[in-house]
Amino acid sequence: MSDRTVRLTTAQAIIRWLANQFIEIDGQEMRVCGGGFGIFGHGNVTCLGEALHGVREDLPLYRGQNEQSMGFAAAGYAKQWLRQRFMFCTASAGPGTSNLLTSAALASANRLPMLLLCGDTFLTRLPDPVLQQMENFGDPTLGVNDAFKPVVRYWDRITHPAQVIQSLPAALATMLDPGDCGPAFLGLPQDVQGWVYDYPEVFFDKKTHRIRRITPDADEVADAATALKQARRPMIIAGGGVQYSRAVKELTDFAETHRIPVVETIAGRANMVATHPLNTGPVGVTGSDSANAIAEKADVIVAVGTRLQDFTTGSWTAFAKSARIISINAARHDAGKHMSLPVVGDARQSLVALGETAGGYVAPDAWVQEAQSERKKWDASVAENVSCGDNRPNCYAQAIGVVNQLCDARDRIVAAAGGLPAEVTANWRTLDTGTVDVEFGYSCMGYEIAGAWGARIAQSQREPDRDTITFCGDGSYLMLNSDIYSSVLTRKKLIVLVLDNGGFAVINKLQNNTGNESFNNLLVDAPTIPEAFGVDFEAHAVSMGAAAETVANPAGLAEAFGRARASDRTYVIVMKVDPYEGWTEGGHAWWEVGTPHITGSDRVRKAHEDWESTRPQQRKGV
User: Fold this and answer.
1) pLDDT tens, 544-557?
2) Is residue 482 within 8 Å of residue 476, measured between CB atoms?
């Protein structure tokens, strides 16, 4: 090993090291960091900005409009690259950095890699208190950046230039670890960013990384195989981890070999195409009647790459209490939930190992036929949901059906918070695997456009001829829309469908379903709004450089979608939808929400009693 050194600032060392980290994907070597999103301020422009300028071709820096949306874009990018590549986000000290907290939480909940390079107060404290510093009277070491500790997988504050020699590899190892994947945070004090150190040159040598495939324990596989071979009504839950392990083929092979029906989680949508005979539909609170019907009867459940969130499990009422769960997961924390038989390992390797150990086991024909019969009935329900006849009021499902009919099989579909995740999950018929991103891990309003922009940046590197299409409610649009402008500036075309129901209609629906009167969700029901009026979303989108039009109905949407596909820039289509009618009523499992135990309202009391009546079905566990 050479003793040669190179004198660099802390910021220069961080960026030079990042630029020399590579990964091999499908036989092609590329930088594991695809670049970054940045908004400069006094806490990062002078030193980190100087370092980034020198590598602007190798690590392109996308100028953000809002730090939170930058983080959402980084998450969308990581999802599109199946966690094999990531982006960094850099923000100044103070509000620029604190704006990234929500993004970090989204990435952590969704197990996504993201590197946060954030300004911090001066280590020397000589100029304290400085602009935007959050002072803690009893602990001067505590600041805003400490708030990231609960929402990242790796956290460090660089207090000496030499620390990056240890911290950077540790942060990258976390982001690439399949069991502990999540965002990494580096707090960069403004003075330390510019301090110099004689770094060993070998630290900056090119390095090619590989994402570890965790080999499952043979005894855990054997126990799982024993349980599976006793099953009369087995079922597979396919989560997002299937795609991150690049195990879609292995999942399909396993299901076909053993003739086991497959249901998908929200994150696992597009693990199978809709027409596969073993695809029984999405499961859970916003699932399908078909998947939920077999879920409640299954005696052995093979859960692959899922953290078993409450929308998947129906708050743990969707499955029989006696059902045995085999949980295949690279994360030990997720594999052991609810007294599961854990198989801690990579989804691809674990499915192959379990299949080999299970030998010639095949599920009974009657069970498979029952699942297929249920799926046929659900397909008929979906056809009715998306239909546009009989003078029905405009609804989400109709818009979803129009796009589903006209888009390319490899187009990227994005949705996030509100009612659209449920409607997309229930009604979207997957045309090709790995094409759907419904962000419901953290259910973040505002992800729709920003996450789509990040996905489009990644997609343009992989499938440039395909479109990224995002479904967005009016509430989410108003919360975070500025990356329409970003997409136009960077020439990363999006197709944005703004479906305007006059407020937060899905929460109004929940409010009404729990016996409450409509209050402060729809604009017309907000007591502090004397006279509600609609936003001209078309004009607003045009003001940011997008092409846009407003349509009256699904037929007009179909025509506009054709123009959007032909457009060479971001295209926004606006359609009003009914806030009360047209919701998908089928496919719902129970969901635990807090309802008032005492109330003066008979309707609220009755709704509470009805809600609680399902609780005895709830599976107990950890």
Assistant:
1) 999 999 999 999 99
2) no
User: Could you give the angle at the alpha carbon of 88 between the alpha carbons of 82 and 91, nearest 5°?
Assistant: 145
Which DSSP symbol is given to 472?
Answer: E
Per-residue pLDDT tens for 246-273?
Answer: 999 999 999 999 999 999 999 999 999 9
- Residues 157-216 have pLDDT tens digits of 999 999 999 999 999 999 999 999 999 999 999 999 999 999 999 999 999 999 999 999
**Cα–Cα dist 420/429, whole Å:** 15
Residue 500 vs residues 215, 431, 550, 577: alpha-carbon distances, Å: 48, 26, 11, 6
Percent of the chain predicted with pLDDT > 90: 95
Helices (H), ranges, 518-553: 537-543
All domains in the chain, ordered by first residue = 5-209 (3.40.50.970), 218-377 (3.40.50.1220), 387-576 (3.40.50.970)
Put the strands of the sheet holding 61-63 in their side by side order.
61-63, 33-38, 86-91, 114-120, 183-189, 154-157
Question: What is the spatial distance between Cα 29 and Cα 297, in angstroms, rounded to a whole number?
Answer: 47
Is the CB of residue 526 less than 8 Å from the CB of residue 507?
A: no
State how far the alpha carbon of 526 is from the alpha carbons of 474, 531, 576, in Å: 16, 9, 19
Query: Which of 604, 420, 608, 595 is CA-nearest to residue 504?
Result: 420
Tokens representing residue 442 in the block: 């953290």
d(CA 419, CA 432): 24
Q: Which residues contact 266 (CB under 8 A, 6 or more apart)?
A: 282, 284, 286, 309, 311, 312, 421, 425, 438, 440
| DSSP class of 580 | S
Q: Are 335 and 205 in contact (CB under 8 A)?
A: no
> How far apart (Å, rounded) are the C-alpha atoms in residues 305 and 329?
5
Helix or strand or coil: residue 7? strand
CA distance 500 to 99: 27
Burial category of 600 from C-beta neighbours within 10 Å (exposed 0-12, middle 13-18, buried 19 and up):
exposed
Please state, in angstroms and rounded to a whole number, the distance separating the CA atoms of residues 13 and 118. 15
Q: Give the separation between CA 379 and CA 292, rounded to whole angstroms.
A: 14
Distances (CA, A) of 420 to 224, 380, 415, 530, 559: 36, 20, 6, 28, 22
Q: What is the 3-state secondary structure (H, E, C) of 89-158?
A: EEECCCHHHHCCHHHHHHHHHCCCCEEEEEEECCCCCCCCCCCCCCCCCCCCCCCHHHHHHHHCCEEEEC
Q: At what angle do helices 396-406 and 365-386 cross, to 10 degrees?
A: 110
DSSP state for residue 82 in the 8-state scheme: T
Q: Judge whether residue 338 has pLDDT over 80.
A: yes
**For the whole model, what pTM was predicted?**
0.97
Q: What is the pLDDT of residue 391?
A: 80
- β-pairing verdict for 5-9 and 196-200: antiparallel
For residue 622, pLDDT over 70 is answered with: no
* CA distances, 358 to each of 233, 257, 351, 361 (Å): 15, 10, 10, 6
For residue 169, whether the previous peptide bond is cis, meaning omega lies within 30 degrees of 0, is no
